[in-house]
Amino acid sequence: MDNKFFKNKNDDLSFKLFLKNIYNCKVGFYSVGLYPASLAYNCAMHSNNKNILLAPRPGRNLLGAFSEEILLEMDKEIIERIIKMSFESNSNKKKTYDLADLILKCDIVFLASNSNHIQDDIYEAIQLRRKLKKENVLFACLVGSFCTNNNDPFILCDKY
User: Fold this and answer.
1) Is the Cβ–Cβ distance between 86 and 61 less than 8 Å?
2) Can you tell me the distance from the alpha carbon of 104 to that of 81, in angstroms, rounded to the nearest whole number?
3) Which of 74, 68, 69, 72 is CA-nearest to residue 38?
4) Burial code of 114-145, b = ≥16 C-beta within 10 A, e = fewer?
5) Separation CA 107–CA 138 (nearest Å)
6) Which of 34, 99, 106 is nearest to 63 (CA)?
7) Are 99 and 107 in contact (CB under 8 A)?
8) Residues 27-42: what's their mean pLDDT?
9) pLDDT at 1
10) How far apart are CA 84 and CA 90, in angstroms?
11) How far apart are CA 109 and CA 121, in angstroms?
């Protein structure tokens, strides 16, 4: 399989620099859901770094994948830190991050959609990355790697 993750895939230096600085990267999770929100919770619990940003899909609640019962059992301070990962404050105005914000602010963006939305999200992310001139932002998916189109299976990273 060809490397389709890095634009300058033949540039070993770019790839090595990216890996060397991976711990300093800002990471964004789009669409959120149970798994990415759980990752964000664990990251907020173990680190005070502000290198994770969250952007819920329009119409979705950031922590909506968790039941009220589970939310009541979670540490309130950690929940507040997770909520802060999802918005930007400018002059007393809160703006919830969206996919474009993640592409502008992050080095890696995880598209955490379910299989019903993943292809649309990949397409939108690619278009936004091009429009915003952020071609070096790496996209990754938190879904199964195989999808089907008219019963014709394909591998996501190979197609996109």
Assistant:
1) no
2) 21
3) 74
4) eeeebbebbeebeebbeeeebeebbbebbbee
5) 6
6) 34
7) no
8) 80
9) 41
10) 13
11) 11
DSSP class of residue 14? H
In this prediction, residue 152 has a pLDDT band, given cuts at 50, 70 and 90, of: low
Residue 9 has pLDDT above 60, yes or no: no
Which position has the token pair 């002059």?
91
Which DSSP string corresponds to 115-130? TTTHHHHHHHHHHHHH
CA distance 131 to 47: 33
Q: What is the largest CA-CA distance in the chain?
A: 50
10-33: buried (b, 16+ CB within 10 Å) or exposed (e) per residue? eeeeeeeebeeeeeeebbbbbbbb
Average pLDDT over residues 132-152: 74
What type of residue is 117?
H
Who contacts 85 (Cβ-Cβ below 8 Å, separation ≥6)? 40, 44, 50, 52, 53, 54
Give the tokens for residue 61.
């609640």
